[in-house]
TrEMBL record:
Keywords recorded for this protein, A-Z: Membrane, Transmembrane, Transmembrane helix
Protein name: DUF1449 family protein
Transmembrane segments: 15-37, 57-82, 94-117
Taxonomic placement: Bacteria, Bacillati, Actinomycetota, Actinomycetes, Streptosporangiales
Source taxon at top rank: Bacteria
């Protein structure tokens, strides 16, 4: 165990160990609903944060086509593992100069290996994310959604919205004011998990939809009406 911690906190593994902690923290927040999987993708036309063709640095490196958070998580995780294994194998071989050279070699191998492995893994993932691409963000304005978080306020909230083609998506939503009255036959202003709401606008700066409480009137043929 001591050897493991020495390798994990030593050069070059420590460079990836701290990054791996950030990755673990990020995915924990995603699982709790505080962030979306596409937190680093801001210019996708699909509204899903998925760069279908891939662009920028990741695209040039052959790692585009999936959310940047997925790609970076794979690179960091694989680089950490290869670096840790290499550091354990190198151990205290040779003197200080030889050990430094071997450590630099481990760093280069870890980066190269992580890039090659991630590039191979991204290829099948592209089909998954392209197949799950959501409609344009503009298509959601005017649609009903169901709140999936415990509350919705001016700084937090998620909801599930179903598009015209039947596909559903979890989107970031905000309620500008908790005093906005419910549109429909029922009263009340709070939006909680399971509440229905109306998407009435999209905020491109905050990259979220603006919603207001809404209850659709019962259908005439509904026996409960």
């Amino acid at each position: 165990m001591v050897e493991f911690f020495d390798a994990a906190l030593g050069f070059p593994t420590a460079l990836f160990s701290f990054a791996l902690l950030v990755v673990a923290g990020y995915w924990t927040v995603v699982l709790l609903g505080g962030l979306g999987i596409d937190a680093l993708d801001t210019d996708a036309d699909t509204g899903a944060g998925v760069e279908v063709e891939g662009g920028g640095f990741l695209g040039a490196a052959g790692l585009g086509g999936v959310p940047a958070t997925v790609t970076l998580s794979l690179v960091i995780g694989l680089a950490w593992f290869v670096s840790l294994a290499g550091s354990v194998l190198v151990g205290d071989t040779g003197g200080a100069a030889v050990h430094a050279l071997l450590s630099i070699a481990v760093l280069l191998v870890a980066l190269t290996g992580a890039w090659l492995c991630t590039r191979g893994l991204v290829r099948p993932l592209r089909r998954v994310f392209q197949g799950a691409a959501q409609p344009s963000r503009r298509d959601f304005v005017g649609e009903m959604c169901v709140i999936r978080t415990g509350r919705v306020g001016p700084d937090f909230g998620q909801a599930e919205v179903t598009s015209a083609d039947g596909s559903s998506a979890i989107v970031q939503v905000r309620q500008p004011s908790a005093d906005v009255p419910v549109a429909g036959p029922a009263g009340g202003t709070g939006l909680t998990a399971g509440s229905t709401a109306l998407i009435f606008d999209y905020d491109p700066v905050a990259e979220c939809f603006l919603v207001m409480p809404y209850e659709a009137p019962p259908r005439p043929d509904d026996p409960a009406a």
